[in-house]
Amino acid sequence: MKSIVLTFAITALLIGQTIAAQEEHQGRNKIYTPEQTEMLKAQKEAVKANREAFKNTLSDEQLAILENKELTKKERQEALRATFSEAQKQLLAENREQIKALKEEFRATITEEQKQAMKERRKRMKDRMQNMNEKREQLKERKKNLKQRKKNRG
Prior knowledge:
With 154 residues, the chain is mainly alpha-helical. The chain contains six helices and no strands. It folds into two domains: 31 residues; 87 residues, no CATH class.
């Protein structure tokens, strides 16, 4: 019986997370105008295109550094950064400036009402995450107590 309740609680938690993620995605569409949504999509596409263009400039040696699993992520980044050519550094700087300009262009279109709605949405998401974490901890505690009771009986 208790395992059924435990399974139900886990299922409810997962469904709650899925619904929250869907509401978050739908919330953007309610806050932003269609033009702003298109601006965000264009910004995301620009980031992908810039990343791909940069990856195409990497030499075999640089790719080997990226694929080296013996290094930590930070060590790989540092080692790779040390091998950048001036052209690669320039490309990265241009990419950064392009994305910065797109973000500024987007920010200029946001109204005060949208800013407030975004702030409220962030707060709701933070509260949801906190509630889910609390429920997860309660579930872990119940599971631990259940195991302890079984151990004490047997």
